Amino acid sequence: MPHSERRIIEQLRQLVGAPSVSSTDPHWDQGNRAVIDLLAAWLADLGFRTEIQEVSGGGAKANLIATLGSGPGGLVLAGHTDSVPFDEGRWRSDPLALTERDNRLYGLGSTDMKGFFPLALAAAASFRETPLQQPLIILATADEESSMDGARALVTAGRPKARAAIIGEPTSLVPVRMHKGIMMEALRITGRAGHSSNPELGNSALEGMHAAISELMAYREQLRERYSNELFQVAYPTLNLGCIHGGDSPNRICGRTELHFDLRMTPNGDNDTARGELEERMARIAAERDLAIELRPLIEPVAPFEEPAESRLVRIAEELTGHRAEAVAFATEAPFMHQLGMETIVMGPGCIDQAHQPDEYLALDQIRPCITLLEQCIRRYCL
Ligand SMILES: [Zn+2]
């Protein structure tokens, strides 16, 4: 095994060994600072200027912006440093101890996406003796798997700026230029409870919910007609009725009920329009039935993402990989990179099918092609 590959595996061993779960469940949620500090030290050794942006009070959660060279253009290689919670009992080996077997590196976050960083560092190291004409920026973020607060903090700060950004989420090194957005909403309907023997004694929230659900399902059909997009495997926006709670007894009129649903919009549409239209429809039902209906977001929404097929970055990535750019079913920080004004694609080592799973792994045969591809991208944007 060549020396550079040993260093990559050793770095990944340390990154996986630094737990950095992020979760909306406080029982699971951890900081990512240990991962950020490891990366900052290694990047400083490579000559990068490193800057740590605190995302939570005290800096237990942080982003890292590491820059080599300077100038108005350049390239960002971006990844998140957090992982999802894990079910240790279902792993064959310790999820926090990188384990090599069957030409794969097993460990929590090995493919999603701590594994990207040692490869980006190896690609950067090839330019140690070459002065860059435009900056190369390695960006490491916090909380992508939960709130995307790391990416939101970058947008607020207006940094980093470059011509283009590649997010190294696992795509088997195929360029991705589109994904859907995510909204998660709670719909709460409040009526008036009363004895079931006389409907005049109350105003049923459940019957109001029946009307609301019919309206949501009709709206879903409209979204499909308006915003279908053939690049996606599921080629239209989806709206899933996830869970519902309400009522207490068969002989009482239901006074309150709440539905949680998600809406995944294609880049043909946008979250704000959908939210406005949902509110309008729910307000109509509320008025017709004299109910209180409240629609509130359960998470900060993530916008759908689309990089135009004709953008320079997409064309370069297609040329270098020999693959047409695709759409994926998972959301990323790409819409935030877009907001910062950068051409953006998602393209990284490993396969999303292994992400968020027990026995997550990065196949060793992804390492060399990924480094070569990143070196070629750096050459295009920074030399
Ligand atoms: Zn990821």
List keywords for this structure.
383 residues; alpha+beta; six-stranded mixed β-sheet; four-stranded antiparallel β-sheet; 18 strands; elongated; binds zinc ion
In short:
The chain has 383 residues and is an alpha+beta fold. Helices cover 33% and strands 23% of the residues.
Give an overview of the whole structure.
The protein has 383 residues and is of the alpha+beta class. The protein has ten helices and 18 strands. It has helices spanning 3-17, 33-45, 110-114, 116-125, 149-157, 205-227, 271-289, 312-321, 334-339, 367-382, and strands at 49-54, 62-68, 75-80, 99-101, 104-106, 136-141, 164-167, 176-179, 183-190, 194-195, 238-246, 252-253, 256-264, 292-297, 305-306, 326-328, 343-346, 361-363. It has a six-stranded mixed sheet with strand order 1-2-6-3-7-17, sandwiched between helices. Strands 11-13-9-14 form a four-stranded antiparallel sheet, with helices on one face. Strand 4 (99-101) and strand 5 form a beta hairpin. Helix 1 runs antiparallel to helix 4 (116-125). It is elongated. The model has no long low-confidence stretch (mean pLDDT 97). It binds zinc ion (ZN). Residues 80, 112-113, 144, 169 line the site of zinc ion.
Query: What are the low-pLDDT stretches, counting only 5+ consecutive residues below 50?
Result: none
- The rounded Rg comes to 24 Å
Question: What global shape is seen?
Answer: elongated
The total beta strand count reads: 18
Bound ligands, named by name, code or SMILES: zinc ion
Portion in strands: 15-25%
**In which order are the strands of the major sheet placed?**
1-2-6-3-7-17
Largest sheet: 6 strands, mixed
The residue-averaged pLDDT reads: 97
Order of helices and strands: HHEEEEEHHEHEEEEHEEEHEEHEHEEH
List the total number of helices: 10
